[in-house]
Specification:
The complex is a heterotrimer of chains A (501), B (372) and C (409). Chain A has 501 residues and is an alpha/beta fold. Chain A folds into three domains: 3-237, Rossmann fold, CATH 3.40.50; 253-333 and 421-436 and 448-501, Rossmann fold, CATH 3.40.50; 345-419, no CATH class. Chain A has 17 helices and 24 strands. The two termini of chain A are 43 Å apart. Chain B is mostly helical. Chain B is globular. Chain C is mostly helical. Chain C has one domain (2-407). Chain C contains 17 helices and four strands. Chain C has a two-stranded antiparallel sheet. In chain C, a hairpin with a 2-residue loop joins strand 2 and strand 3 (170-171). The longest helix of chain C has 27 residues, at 245-271. The radius of gyration of chain C is 22 Å and the shape is globular. Classes of the chains: A alpha/beta (501), B mainly alpha (372), C mainly alpha (409). At the B-C interface, helix 7, helix 14 and helix 16 of B face helix 4, helix 5, helix 12 and helix 17 of C.
Chain lengths: 501, 372, 409
């Protein structure tokens, strides 16, 4: 076997982000090589360097034994490297075909040869078992299908070295199986696959070799058959992993939230985005909402918060809140950790102390009457930063300057500061590092003991099972199953999410 | 945590605050010099002539009189800018505000201060109503307010010409100038000359300073306080900075959009009054055009802040007034529009460059904190 | 399919117009002269809207179209009066592109807010041409500080056989013209409109209108077009595939400026015979509105521009026709009311019906609209059309968003 790609002593420095220090990786053809490390360890940076999106400060890259110097992705593509991005890089308003050929369009005189392109895509799709209709708009596709488009994009360019950046993060277990089958196929055809992940069981299932990065440096390179998940985990964090777990029941008699037949129709009224959602949530209870993304979880959150009109009724502490505005619901003691922190929870170009006000601008401690109490706000911001270990110079720091994990800790801290009776938490630990994840789980646990009710929405099945007292599965906008988390494995939950049960 | 880091006023921070205006000034001086050289004259001579003329007491009063409506109109625009909207329709709103306040205000006589207040309310009502059309279209029909307010400007022009000529104007024998009935003395805003004389300022041939100057100053203070220190101001700014997050946080975004545009229109309604109440005392065909457009530049240059806009309004006024002296040395006075334009363009670019630089600087600072 | 639908709507519209013509006697509603003027007045708006199309498809909001048109009109007048109309048009394109270059530098390279930069360019362009005109006037080469000397006209021609015209000395018959003169209800209306659109047309108009299908071809059939659109839909994805997003945005904005400049030049050289101050008069903005109305597609913007051109032509030619047009508004409002009632929206239906009734009353109460109000027609049309069309718009996903290579902020 020959070495397809090799990175030698790569170093990269960034303002505010952990740099790569002396990273070395060697990937052979016809193998799947995993790159593992916790969030923020520098995996993605390494891959961006290999893909020409960023340039290393020092070190060298060899492709098929030859030294290369990528100025941009074009150079990497020309060298046979392709990348399947974690956040899909697709134009929603383009067709599958347009997305695939963009940047390397087959031409027929002055025009794009759509006929030849379509033929090639259909053939490739058949060859690798990546079934897809080339003429639909990408916005109509589900997550698994979008990933297929991403893979086809790479293959269309004739890539022999494929980078998969956290490809399973958005997939349910069954889709993961399909993906792994495709990876097997690629390996059999002599391709080199680089698989980035922090899910160690998956890594051990699919990879031949594993390189571990920690704090920007490679700390180990091992054969996957020689290690256990436990050993890998310790290499990854250098200590023991935190576990999501709520430890015992704290559920109280009183009911905090009641939903009865809550439905939301599409703008045209043609179908329901969520239909007839009903459940009770007690104080001191965590209800986990499981489901593949886009099955109505976001709409459910919007209904509870009053961000969208719905039919049916929602009660909080036994009285209807259907007629209440978003602001009034906030002020009653409903807290929200929205799923997309930068889009929904922060003013990126404003300092933290002003962000502290957002969502709390109707009362103490940030307001005195209708006037902002700047001093108290700054003091309160400082408290949140200390309690939740938000790493930033001070309340004057712009939100945009913070790393994702620190932004999330700040948002959780902001919501918890008002001691909500109900917290709607959408992906509360998405994209944060292991330490912050453990801290956020701790906070939720403690508040739950004090009687806070939580609606927890997450794509992390371990988190759902570990944190919830009760699991509701959403599929196509309806609740299709209720599970006991103590008796549910991630695989069973995954099956329920896809309706396979 | 190192709070001291933020308290420390490092030289780089002071440098940053000055960098953008400085770069913009240098760039625009270069461009303006080129324009002067194009007329085969010495830039130095042009600039000194402008400075000498512009700093005479009479000119300075005119500068203030020119800047006052700019400032009021710029505040109107800034209200929408801060909310993430853009009211280009100030020109039309202030025209209708002035027209209706003159027409209705001349129909009755009230005690002095009260009459002026009523005239203000009329102007604000009509300015606000005109803006409300755009607000309604935006909130109910999703029509982009930039385009609708531009169309409304054209409509305001046609409508005011029609109303003036067919309904509002006095018919005078042998006069081409159409104008509304003169406002009674109780509705006029007195000149500030009596006050200035007490401070030893001598009378100037061009007249004194409009009394509306104080109204502009007061508006600036109110604007600053409301936007920066109140809940409404916070929600307004949040809507501009991140409309989605603002909505999630409980801001009623449609209501905010509507209010911002209508308040903006109401303030704009006042911007036509300094000249009308202070000098002409009636609305006529010669009503000064273009205030609303220059005010956009003033708002952009002043970064929508009360202090910044005051500075840029005075700067624009100064350039306009002092450039008249260029005629004496045979340079086209229109050179001032080149100066205004190049300042505006270089300033908006410089602000953005400095913003990016600042963010990088903060990230660096952060890296020091995060990495032990 | 779609073409058939459009044809059906167009036929319906002509039928309604013809009926109103018969009822009111406002013969200019469907006259050859109106159609011809509508075409002439549409062209600058089409060019501006096409300019907007290229820019916004590349993800750059271009409200600076107005300023670029102003620059184009001035350059068209200056160069056109000195070196002839063709050089004038070329100069107009170049000047428009210079304005666009400034916009591209500000928005693409420096990340300035697109609307801010665009408005700044409009303000600067208006000031710049005023300054330049004054210089020309002072030099003694211009007749006034606000207008250029006259420009030689570009010849007109018509479709052979159908609409008259001259070909190598052969004088073609004018079939459509003859039918139009027969004064048959509906048939003659169609003929006279077609005659207006195809007869006595400037060569520049033909070229400008042909840009519409050309734009479609470039944007949807070539690799360049796909890449340009990708910069407006998903710039980060495009970059990851090696598309030079900055280059695409620059290209889009520069093409935009060239087209807008040409539109301005057209106003000075073809639609008029010299440059005059305020000649553009908001047509850049109307072009943008036409683009929005056309949902960011070439065919749609052509329809939008045609509508505004028609309204503009009517108000210029005949204010009685505008009065008659009130009846058209009544018909449209009644139609809207019908649709609302049918879909169960009683309040909306009642509102539309009330508005229709009010307009009908206004029609009978006023015999003739005063001139100042008639000039407002194209702007009112723009507002009305935007109000009816805005909600189903699909703008490019990343339109107006600042973009920086490597995902930096």
């Amino acid at each position: 076997m020959s070495v397809a790609v090799e990175l030698r002593h790569i170093t990269k420095r960034f303002p505010g982000v952990i740099a790569n220090k002396d990273v070395s990786i060697k990937v052979e053809t016809g193998t799947v090589h995993a790159l593992v490390g916790e969030n923020g360890a520098g995996k993605s940076t390494v891959m961006k360097i290999l893909y020409g999106m960023q340039r290393p400060d020092s070190g060298e890259i060899l492709v098929n034994g030859a030294n290369v110097n990528f100025k941009n992705p074009n150079d990497a593509i020309a060298a046979g490297i392709g990348m399947v991005h974690q956040h899909f890089m697709l134009a929603d308003n383009f067709t599958v075909l347009e997305n695939i050929i963009l940047g390397s369009e087959p031409k027929h005189g002055a025009t794009i040869d759509f006929v030849a392109a379509r033929k090639k895509v259909v053939e490739m799709a058949a060859q690798y078992g990546l079934d897809i209709d080339p003429d639909v708009l990408v916005e109509e596709l589900g997550v698994g299908q979008r990933q297929r488009v991403e893979i086809l994009k790479v293959l269309f360019r004739g890539a022999k070295i494929l980078i998969f950046d956290e490809p399973t993060a958005v997939l349910v277990p069954q889709e993961v199986d399909d993906l792994f089958k495709a990876l097997e196929g690629l390996r059999a055809q002599g391709m080199a696959v680089i698989f980035i992940s922090h899910k160690l069981d998956e890594v051990l299932r699919v990879a031949d070799e594993v390189t571990v990065v920690r704090q920007g440096s490679t700390v180990a390179e091992v054969k996957s058959k020689d290690v256990t998940a436990r050993q890998l985990a310790e290499l990854m964090v250098g200590s023991e992993l935190p576990k999501p777990s709520t430890l015992g029941h704290t559920r109280r008699e009183e009911i905090t939230l009641t939903l009865r037949d809550v439905s939301i129709a599409t703008a045209t009224g043609s179908r329901n985005l969520i239909s007839n959602i009903s459940f009770d949530l007690h104080a001191g209870e965590v209800v986990g909402i499981a489901g593949v993304e886009g099955n109505g979880q976001a709409e459910l959150v919007e209904a509870i918060m009053g961000l969208r009109e719905y039919t049916g009724s929602i009660e909080f502490h036994g009285s209807s809140i259907d007629e209440l505005s978003v602001a009034e619901r906030h002020d009653l003691g409903i807290g929200l950790i929205p799923e997309d922190r930068q889009r929904q929870a922060l003013m990126m170009s404003s300092p933290l102390w002003e962000n502290r006000i957002l969502g709390h601008q109707r009362g103490k401690p940030v307001m005195r009457g209708f006037v902002i109490d700047k001093k108290a706000t700054i003091e309160s911001t400082r408290t949140i930063m200390q309690e939740f270990d938000v790493r930033a110079p001070g309340p004057d720091t712009l939100a945009a300057a913070l790393s994702g994990g620190n932004q999330q800790k700040f948002i959780v801290g902001r919501e918890m500061s008002k001691v909500p009776a109900l917290l709607v938490a959408s992906h509360p630990t998405r994209g944060v590092d292991v330490g912050a994840q453990g801290a956020i789980w701790d906070v939720l646990r403690k508040a739950r003991e004090k009687g806070m009710a939580v609606v927890l929405i997450s794509a992390d099945l371990e988190e759902l099972i570990g944190m919830s007292d009760r699991l509701l599965v959403m599929l196509r906008g309806a609740i299709t199953a209720e599970l006991d988390p103590t008796k549910t494995t991630p695989e069973q939950l995954g099956s329920a999410m896809t309706g396979a049960v | 945590m190192s709070n001291s880091l933020t308290r420390k006023l490092s030289p780089s921070k002071i440098g940053l605050a000055v960098a953008a205006p400085l770069a913009a000034a240098v760039f625009s001086i270069i461009i303006s010099s080129l324009a002067v050289i194009a007329s085969k004259k010495s830039p130095m001579e042009a600039f000194t002539t402008m400075w000498d003329y512009g700093t005479e007491a009479g000119s300075l009063m005119e500068v203030i009189n020119t800047a006052t409506p700019y400032y009021i109109a710029a505040i109107a625009i800034a209200v929408t800018f801060r909310a993430g909207l853009f009211n280009i329709g100030v020109e039309g709103q202030l025209r209708l505000g002035a027209l209706f306040s003159c027409y209705i205000g001349a129909m009755f006589v009230l005690p002095p201060v009260l009459h002026v207040a009523v005239v203000f309310i009329i102007a604000m009502t009509f300015g606000g109503l005109w803006a409300a059309i755009a607000a309604y279209l935006k909130v109910k029909r999703g029509v982009n307010e930039v385009i609708s307010t531009i169309m409304l400007n054209a409509l305001a022009g046609g409508l005011s010409a029609y109303l003036l000529s067919k309904h509002f104007a006095l018919v005078e024998e042998g006069s081409n100038n159409l104008q509304t009935k003169e406002l009674p003395a109780s509705a006029q805003v007195p000149d500030l000359m009596p006050l200035l004389r007490k401070f030893g300022v001598e009378d100037q041939p061009g007249g004194g300073v409009y009394g509306m100057f104080f109204v502009a100053v007061a508006l600036g203070l109110i604007f600053w306080f409301v936007v920066n220190r109140t809940r409404f101001g916070f929600e307004l700014r949040a809507s501009g900075l991140n409309p989605i997050a603002a909505r999630v946080s409980g801001v009623n975004s449609k209501k905010m959009t509507f209010l911002a545009l209508v308040i903006s229109g109401a303030i704009a309604g006042l911007a036509g009054l300094p000249e009308v109440l202070g000098q002409t005392h009636s609305y006529n065909l010669g009503f000064r055009a273009g205030i609303g457009f220059s005010a956009i530049a003033v708002a952009l240059l002043g970064r929508n802040s009360a202090g910044g806009m005051a500075f840029s309004a005075l700067l624009f006024g100064f350039l306009e007034v002092s450039s008249r002296s260029l005629e004496l040395i045979d340079i086209a006075p229109e050179t001032y529009v080149i100066m205004q334009g190049s300042i505006l363009l270089s300033a908006v670019i410089a602000y953005e460059v400095v913003r990016r630089f600042k963010l990088t600087l903060q990230s660096n600072e952060l890296a020091k904190v995060v990495q032990p | 399919m779609k073409a058939m639908k459009i044809l059906r709507y167009a036929t319906m519209l002509v039928f309604v117009l013809a009926s109103i013509r018969v009822i009111t006697g406002a013969s200019d509603l469907t006259s050859t002269g109106t159609a011809s003027a509508a075409l002439l007045l549409s062209v600058p708006i089409v060019l501006a809207a096409l300019g907007g199309l290229f820019s916004e498809r590349a993800g750059v909001v271009n409200i600076g179209l107005e300023g670029m048109m102003i620059m184009g009109a001035w350059a068209g007048g200056y160069i056109g009066s000195q070196h002839g109309p063709w050089f004038g048009l070329m100069a107009a394109m170049i000047f428009g592109s210079v304005g666009a270059l400034v916009h591209a530098i500000a928005t693409v390279t420096f990340g300035v807010d697109h609307v801010v930069s665009g408005v700044a360019i409009n303000i600067i362009a208006a000031g710049l041409v005023r300054y330049l005109s004054t210089l020309m006037y002072k030099n003694g080469s211009w007749p006034g500080p606000s207008q250029s000397p006259g420009i030689e006209t570009i010849p007109l021609n018509g479709l052979p056989v159908l609409s008259g015209g001259q070909y190598f000395g052969w004088k073609s018959p004018d079939l459509l013209g003859s039918i139009a003169n027969l004064n048959w209800f509906f048939v003659s209306d169609i003929a006279s409109i077609l005659r207006g659109l195809t007869g006595d047309v400037s060569y520049v108009t033909v070229v400008a209108i042909s840009f519409v299908p050309l734009a479609y071809f470039i944007l949807w059939r070539t690799a360049f077009g796909l890449r340009l659109r990708s910069a407006g839909e998903a710039p980060v994805a495009a970059e990851s595939l090696g598309v030079n997003v900055y280059a695409m945005k620059y290209a889009g904005v520069l093409i935009s400026g060239g087209l807008a400049g040409l539109g301005g030049g057209f106003l000075a050289i073809v639609a008029a015979s010299n440059y005059q101050e305020n000649q553009v008069a908001g047509r850049g903005y109307i072009g943008l509105a036409a683009l929005l109305f056309g949902n960011y597609r070439p065919g749609g913007l052509l329809a939008g521009a045609g509508l505004f051109g028609f309204a503009d032509a009517l108000q210029l030619r005949d204010s009685a026709a505008i009065h008659a047009l009130l009846l058209l508004i009544v018909v449209i409002l009644a139609f809207v009311a019908f649709r609302k009632f049918k879909s169960g929206k009683q309040i909306g239906g009642l509102l539309a019906l009330t508005a229709a009734g009010f307009t009908l009353w206004f029609y009978f109460a006023v015999d003739e609209l005063p001139g100042q109000l008639v000039t407002m027609t194209p702007y009112i049309a723009t507002l009305l059309v935007m109000a009816l069309a805005s909600q189903r718009l699909r703008m490019p996903a990343a339109d107006g968003m600042p973009y920086r290579r490597g995902g930096l902020r």
